[in-house]
Design a protein that fits this description.
mainly alpha, about 40% helix
């Protein structure tokens, strides 16, 4: 997938979900939460490639990158999008995503 496709897909997911995918006690982010939510990388992992052993793995690890269908060319963008999910509040996501689009020369669609 291209950087534009990655950005557009993750942006739509995050803004629709408007909530972090957290563990039950709300202390750490998950690729898929018990509430059925997913993070910026988790939304890219098809059901048939997801398994609980992925949790806790770094988003740039080989097994996560392969499960999410990322390429070397879009790993940096994917990590930036993951940081937006993990480190900022959902209320700041629109601004963070707009800045990311500008940083990577993408259409903010």
């Amino acid at each position: 997938m291209t950087n534009q496709e990655l950005f557009t897909r993750v942006k739509a997911h995050l803004l629709k979900q408007n909530e972090q995918a957290l563990n039950e006690d709300g202390t750490s982010c998950l690729y898929r939460s018990p509430k059925g939510l997913s993070c910026a990388i988790g939304c890219l992992i098809p059901d048939e490639k997801y398994h609980a052993r992925l949790e806790g793995g770094a988003a740039d690890s080989r097994r996560i990158v392969e499960a999410a269908g990322l390429t070397h060319e879009n790993e940096s963008l994917a990590m930036t999008l993951q940081s937006i999910h993990d480190l900022t509040s959902p209320s700041s996501w629109p601004h963070q995503l707009e800045a990311t689009a500008a940083q990577y020369w993408l259409e903010n669609v």
